[in-house]
Amino acid sequence: GDVIHRMLTATQYIAPLMANFNPSYSRNSTVQYLDNGTVFVVQWDKVYLQGKEDLGSFTFQAALHSTGRIVFGYKEIPVPVLQISATQHPVKAGLSDAFMVLNPSPDVPESRRRTIYEYHRVELDTSRISSLSAVEFTPLPTCLQHRSCETCVTSELTFNCSWCHVLQRCL
């Protein structure tokens, strides 16, 4: 979006593993991405926790497929995630989305107050994250996937769909 706010980054994320990583600790540490038009992959390779470099390096990735499928892959997790301190940075894994609304401020008529609404979050059980493991998220069906009025109103995969004749879309 065009608005950057600290709370948006706390509530809008796709995180295979969020912690206080320091990619600049080692010359071998990298954060790389690849986009081939079908899948977008971000890989954290040999990254270390800030101040806990003796624990070893972490290697993991997130793959976002054009179909909506998301895969988190964990190659190297040297310690149980539950043992990672959240003092300096939150430790979490999962998906979250939110939106921000600008409301007029009652105190100052010319200003606006930002309100962030988190509307969905999927948290992974971090005790299950380990080396050589993966987590796959598959999207649920939605009304938007239906391309005709008939499939829209008769679908048993989705619920409460209705056909908009003006837009020629299922909503």
Automatic annotation (TrEMBL):
Keywords of this entry: Glycoprotein, Membrane, Signal, Transmembrane, Transmembrane helix
Topology of this chain in the membrane: Single-pass type I membrane protein
tRNA-binding recorded as keyword: no
Location within or outside the cell: Membrane
The keyword Transmembrane is annotated on this UniProt entry: yes
GO cellular component terms, A-Z: membrane
Family, similarity comment: Belongs to the plexin family.
Name listed for the protein in its UniProt record: PLDX1 protein
Native organism: Neopipo cinnamomea
